[in-house]
Write a structure and sequence with these properties.
Helices cover 38% and strands 12% of the residues. It has 104 residues and is an alpha/beta fold. It has a domain of 68 residues: Response regulator (Rossmann fold). The protein has a three-stranded parallel β-sheet with strand order 1-2-3, with helices on both faces.
């Protein structure tokens, strides 16, 4: 989180199960901080739901990839993340205040 706070990345890729801290708690921390809330998160996990779909226990990952990981699947999801980043940048650009119009 220190690195994310000091030099925010364009995207975060995390595993659900890591030593010490779960990927789910990391995602929660990233998404609850205003400075990092809009960073797209790609969650990589072998955890699945009973229906076979991949599980995101945080409910906050932008993209979820199941294991095993295949190169084509990773590239496809990185392209989705790139589109998400472009969309967020466009929204931020539209939300910028403009100079007031001068009237006489």
């Amino acid at each position: 989180m220190r690195i994310i706070a000091s030099d925010p990345p364009d995207i975060v890729i995390t595993d659900a199960m890591m030593p010490g801290e779960s990927g789910f708690s990391l995602i929660d921390e990233i998404k609850t901080r205003p400075a990092s809330a809009n960073i797209p998160i790609l969650l990589w996990t072998m955890l699945t739901q009973p229906d076979g779909s991949v599980m995101d226990a945080s409910g906050k990952a932008d993209i979820v990839i199941g294991k095993p990981l295949y190169r084509s699947n990773m590239l496809e999801n990185l392209n989705k993340a790139k589109q998400l980043i472009a969309h967020q940048m466009a929204i931020a650009e539209d939300a910028r205040p403009t100079a007031p119009l001068l009237t006489r």
